[in-house]
Amino acid sequence: DGKEIPEKTLWLVNAGVQRIKRYVFETSGLNEIRGASSLLEELTATARECIASAFGSEVILRAVGSSLLFMVPSEKNAVSWAERIQNGFNKATGTAFTVASWAAVPASELLFDYKRALSRVSKASEQARTRGEYPGYTALPFETRCAVCRTRPAEGWYEPTQGDHSPICRPCRTKRQVGYPDRWEKPEAILRILGLETPEKLGVDGLR
Question: Hey, what long-range contacts does 52-60 have (CB within 8 A, 24 or more apart)?
């Protein structure tokens, strides 16, 4: 009938942990480093599943490491999902600097000028980083410090490889809880892929 089809607008949501090395390598312990990395991967995978369940897997443009980029049909969806992911990452990690932003993008740009579409949400992300704040904590002079990071107040105890129980803060404890099992599980998974899942095939007595 000669009428132009109205332009459809979508919203791109970009969310993830910024200055990731600061979070992962905050302490030198291998369990904490391994745990921090694994925790971010698990959070991203969980977020991806939730997004796919709500909108379909085809809306997800990137979901790797600690970074998510996906499309939603309305600004209301963009705001609520950005806040949901940012709050979820902050609550789970306790200290990671998480930023979430969104931008309106014409659907035609996603098809014919993807670089320009990404620049829109990249600009929004930069503004969000500028406004963002690290999750804070208060450490009073008389409080016992975490034996792992030596900065935050301890909230519990953990048993190191050598020595007695030591005080630990919640973020460091979370990293250890995730990272300690990984010291066995990830190497064993790699060995299974290589067909070397039994110690006998390696010519050693055992992996542990």
Answer: 54/81
**Dist. CA 187–CA 31, nearest whole Å:** 14
Distance CA 46, CA 66 (A): 11
**pLDDT tens digit string along 94-104?**
999 999 999 99
How far is residue 42 CA from its own chain's centroid? 7
* DSSP letters for the chain: --PPPPPPEEEEEEEEEESHHHHHTSS--HHHHHHHHHHHHHHHHHHHHHHHHHH-GGGEEEEETTEEEEEESSHHHHHHHHHHHHHHHHHHHSS-EEEEEEEEEEHHHHHH-HHHHHHHHHHHHHHHHHH--PPP----TTSPBPTTTSSSBP-EEE--SSSS-EEE-HHHHHHHHHHHHHHHHHHHHHHHHTT--SHHHHTSS---
What is the total residue count of the chain? Answer: 208
For residues 208 and 188, the answer to whether their CB atoms sit within 8 Å is: no
CA-CA distance, 191 to 114, in Å (whole number)?
A: 40
pTM of the model: 0.79
